[in-house]
Design a protein that fits this description.
single chain, alpha+beta, Apoptosis, Tumor Necrosis Factor Receptor Associated Protein 2, Chain A, Potassium Channel Kv1.1, Chain A, Serine Threonine Protein Phosphatase 5, Tetratricopeptide repeat, 3 domains, five-stranded antiparallel beta sheet, flat, BTB/POZ_dom, SKP1/BTB/POZ_sf
Length: about 400
């Protein structure tokens, strides 16, 4: 391990990763070159390689981040669009701080052309399902390094999600814009690549369709949702939803009566569903409204809306809503949302498991409940072993 007392001085007032004041690229590069190389050569590898993009993974032992003034760097590697340059990654941490920092450095050997390239760099933490979290994006141009900091609690509090055999997986992608790459290799005068467009065309179309819905102009189908009626247009519903399309395509009661009775959705959910079908947008929604719209999107085969609802819910699962969200995610086959709900239950197990909802959940979903209890036992064992 390497002492970074001079570096730590820059960070002594930082309270969280988002508040970290990062040192200059020049200072960063100077510290980075003094760092020892990671001893495990298999821990650093490229897992994707394209002509203008590389994807890197670095497995770092979680104990490293609990060690005082520790720092390591990876082996050198090449990046396709910059054949004359050598790159390497670094990681360092101070035990008294609440964050750790990773960075990407380039040896100052690159040509002037390569130095002018704008390289988009993205740092993330990978979970057990190879999904990126806490992504930080930087741009490497006319400097020798970029860096990003992560709150240590992201893996200490959620170690079941992030730790693989006691290691934190750092994900880094490097990407060069295709137009910039072409321009950098051409000796001729840059060409104006801008293309005239009709601004706000999509917004105007959405506004017009919204007016069509609100004013009930030329409607030809009625949606009866628990006694409340909504007027709509069969062509728009069929164009947007495969489920509605099949209703109107075959000889069904809905087609002959121009009337659809819906009993398993709330009026508010239908209102937002229609807004999305006509405009591609929704109002600001509460967590419960998001759950209802998530269910509606799955029923009417709207994968983009379902994904958007799921993503929003993953960051808004609260203790009192966790079991309800878990049931919905389980019924509608959304693993990301299911895992987010389970993690919330694990983080707040004492409050959740003494509620009446938990007793009902145990009876109705014993397999999922047993999985949660097993994960909780593993978490408790890991914490106990760590303290030894």
């Amino acid at each position: 391990m390497h002492n970074l007392s001079a570096y730590v001085a820059f960070h002594q007032h930082a309270k969280a990763a988002t508040q970290t004041v990062l040192i200059s690229a020049q200072e960063f590069s100077r510290f980075a070159m003094e760092m020892p190389v990671a001893t495990d050569p298999g821990a650093f590898k490229k897992c994707g390689k394209l002509s203008k993009k590389d994807v890197l993974r670095w497995s770092v032992d979680s104990g490293f981040f609990r060690t005082s003034d520790s720092a390591i760097r990876s082996d050198f590697f090449k990046f396709g669009p910059c054949p004359d340059s050598k790159f390497y990654m670094v990681a360092f941490s101070n035990a008294s701080n609440t964050f750790f920092t990773v960075g990407l450095c380039r040896l100052p050997l690159q040509t002037e052309t390569e130095n002018s390239l704008s390289i988009r760099v993205s740092f993330s933490l990978l979970d057990l399902r190879d999904r990126c979290h806490h992504t930080c994006e930087r741009t490497l141009k006319d400097v020798d390094s970029v860096q990003a900091s992560f709150d240590k609690s992201c893996y200490t509090n959620h170690h079941l999600m992030f730790l693989r055999d006691g290691k934190v997986i750092i994900h880094c992608s490097m990407d060069v814009d295709e137009v910039l790459l072409e321009d950098s290799t051409e000796q001729s005068t840059p060409v104006n690549r801008s293309i005239p467009v009709l601004e706000n065309l999509n917004r105007d179309l959405a506004d017009d369709l919204s007016t069509l819905l609100q004013n009930r102009l030329h409607t030809d189908v009625t949606l009866n949702v628990n006694g409340e009626e909504f007027q709509a247009h069969r062509a728009i519903l069929a164009a947007r939803s495969p489920v509605f399309a099949k209703m109107f395509e075959h000889d069904t009661l809905e087609k002959s009566d121009n009337r659809i009775v819906i009993e398993d959705l709330s009026s508010d959910a239908m209102k937002q569903l229609l807004r999305y079908l006509y405009t591609g947008d929704t109002d600001e929604l509460s967590t419960q409204e998001l759950v209802s719209l998530f269910v509606a999107s799955d029923k009417y085969d709207l994968p983009k809306l379902k994904k958007n609802c799921s993503t929003a819910l993953c960051s808004r699962v609260t203790t009192d809503m966790a079991l309800n969200v878990l049931v919905v995610a389980n019924l509608h086959g959304d693993e990301d949302l299911k895992n987010a709900a389970i993690q919330t239950v694990l983080d707040n197990a004492f409050d959740v498991m003494r509620s009446e909802e938990w007793l009902s959940f145990l009876r109705e979903y014993p397999e999922v409940a047993n999985s949660i209890i097993l994960n909780l036992a593993m978490k408790t064992t890991t914490i106990r072993d760590t303290k030894k």
